[in-house]
Fold this protein.
Amino acid sequence: MEDAARLLQLVVNGSAAGCIYGLIALGFVLIYKATEMVNFAQGDIMMLGGFTAYSLIATLGLNYWVGSPRRTRSPGSASRALSRISSCSPTPRCCRTC
């Protein structure tokens, strides 16, 4: 009976990891189709969310439901900051949003 429970746990863990990989791949496809450029910063942003969730939940001891909304804000804020920085020109005639 213990082997069947272990097999079921392995199947569930593998399915969860596969779903996460599928979502990341879908994000790459959506970004590529919209901009016709590959954005390799997406993986870094995803890891930022993962590390934020780990530090909030495991290290600081926050409840999962309290830490989850906060983990989604940090990659969003980092994406906005990267977009704002990369949209500015290095010349003196910088855009007004800088």
The chain is about 80% helix and 0% strand.
